[in-house]
Amino acid sequence: MSDLSQPHLPQAQAVTAPMLPLALTGVGFEHRGQRLLHDITLTLGAGRTLVMGPNGAGKSLLMRLCHGLLTPSAGQIRWHGQPPSPGLALRQAMVFQRPVLLKRTALANLTYVLAIRGYPWRQRKALAQEALEHFGLAGLAQRPARVLSGGEQQRLALARAWLLAPDILFLDEPTAALDPAAIRAVEAAVNQFHHRGTKIVMTTHDLNQARRLADDVVFLHAGRLLEHSPAERFFDTPQSGEAAAFVRGELPW
Amino acid sequence: MSTADNAFTTALSLILTLDPVLMDIVRLSLQVSLSAVLVAALIGLPLGAALALWAFPGRGAVVVLLNAFMGLPPVVAGLMVYLMLSRAGPLGQLGLLFTPTAMVIAQTVLVLPIVAALTRQHIEALLGEYREQLASFGLGRARMMPTLLWDARVALITVVLAGFGRASAEVGAVLIVGGNIDGVTRVMTTAIALETNRGNLALALGLGLVLLLLVACVNGAAHLLGERARRQMG
After folding, report:
1. Which residues, in sequence order, are bridge partners of residue A95?
2. What is the complex's ipTM, to 2 decimals?
3. Helix, strand or coil, per DSSP, at residue B147
C-alpha cells in the first residue's frame, strides 16, 4: 500500500512544484475555420471540477486543450503561472470515454506505463499487481485487456492512471457507456484519486453523478463558458437561463 | 501409365527419399527467400511505421509509389538489380551478379514495398485508435513506434508471411540475376521452369509439390495465427 500511495517516481520526475491553479485566459479553438471554443477565461483550483453542458458545447475540447493534446488557437494556458511543458504534461493523466487499452494482458497494460516512465523492471510487476488489486481486478491480471467487460476496461484504465500518479486527472465521460454497478466503481475510483490529492477534471452528462461528485461546476454552452461556480450554487441557483434549463433536464444532451 | 502419372510417382519418391539434388535446391530457395524477407522486414517495418507516424512534404507521393511497387513485376525487379550489379553497372565492382546474394537483393526489392506499404496501412489504422492515449502518456512519435509495431504484431506477421509467399513463388527476378546455375543459384522456381523445358517432369513436379506445400503451410499459419489472435486479444 505504501508503494501505491507514494509511488517511487524516478528522480527526474520527482518534481514537487505546485501545478495549480490552472488558469485559462481568453482561450479559443478553431478547426477548419470553425470556432468551436470562444474566449474561455477560467481558473481551476484543487478539488473535483465537473465540466457540464449539452452535446457540442466543447467539454471534451476544453479538457484536451488543458491536457495539451490540442493547442489553443487563441489565448493562453498557465499551470501555476508556467506555460505548458513536457515536464508538466507528465504530471497529468487522462481517462477517455472509450478506454484505449493495448492489445496485451491487463497486467502488461499496467507494466507498460511503468516502463515508459522509467521504473526499473524488477519493480514493475509488483506495483502493477498491487494496482490491479486496489481496483478489484486482481483475478484478471492475465486476461487480454480487450476482452474485459466495459466496466472492467474502464477500471483498468483508472488503475493505469493511478500508476502514473498524476497531480491532475482528466476524465472524459468515463461512465457514459457503463451499467450502474460499473458507474459506482468508477466514481469510487475517482474519489480515491481525490483523496490522494489528485485534482479531478471530469465531463459528464449525468446530472446525478455531477451532484454526487462535484466540488465546482464549469458549464459550457455552444463553445462559451456560461458559469463556473461551486456545485451547490450551480445546482440550486444557476445564473444563466441555459444552465437553469440544463439542471432541470430540459436541454438536449 | 501416362507420362504424368509416371512423373508423379517418381516425384513422390524423390521427395520421400529426400533426394539430394532436390533437397539442395529446396535449401537454397529457403535460404534466399528467408534472407530477403528478413532484410525486407528489418527495413520495411520501421519504414512503414515511420510513414504512418510522420507527415512531411511528398509523403503522399511516397505512399502511392510504395503501393504501386507492391505490384512490381519480378522480371522488372530482376532487370533493375541486374543493371546495378552487371559489370558496367554502378555496383559491378562487387562481383555479385549470378550469386545467391544477388538473388537476395532482387527478392528484397520485390518484398520491401509489400512489407512497407502494408505496415503503413496497419500502423496508421492503429495510430488512429492509440494516438491520443499515447500522447497523453507523454510519448513522442519516435517512442510511439515500438508500441505500435508490437501491438500490430499479428497483422504484421501476416504481412511478412505474404512477403515470403511472394519471394518464394517468383521466378523472373532470381532467374535474371542468379542465372539458374546448377548447384549455385538454382532455386525451386527456376529449376521447375528448366526441368519442364528439358522434359524432366519428375523433378519439376517434385519441386512443384514442395513449393505448393510450402506456400500452403505459410498461408495456413497466417490464417491460424490471425484467427487465434482475433479470438484471444479481441
Report:
1. A171
2. 0.89
3. helix
Given pLDDT bands bounded at 50, 70 and 90, which one contains residue A5?
very low
Please state the domain extents for chain A: 19-101+148-247, 102-147
Closest-CA distance of chain A to residue B133, Å: 6
Q: b/e string for B139-153 if b means 16 or more Cβ within 10 A?
A: bebeebbebbbebbe
- From the list A57, A56, A76, A54, the residue with the least C-alpha distance to A65 is A76
B143 at the A interface (CB within 8 A)? yes
pLDDT digits (tens, 9 = 90+) for B42-73: 999 999 999 999 999 999 999 999 999 999 99
Q: What is the CATH superfamily name and number for domain B3-233?
A: MetI-like (1.10.3720.10)
The residues in A 40-99 lying below 8 A from B, measured between CB atoms, are: 64, 67, 69, 86, 89-90, 92-94, 96
CB pair distance less than 8 Å for A147 and B151: no
Q: Which chain B positions have a beta carbon within 8 Å of A86's beta carbon?
A: 138
CATH class of A19-101+148-247: alpha beta
Q: Does B129 touch chain A (CB under 8 A)?
A: yes
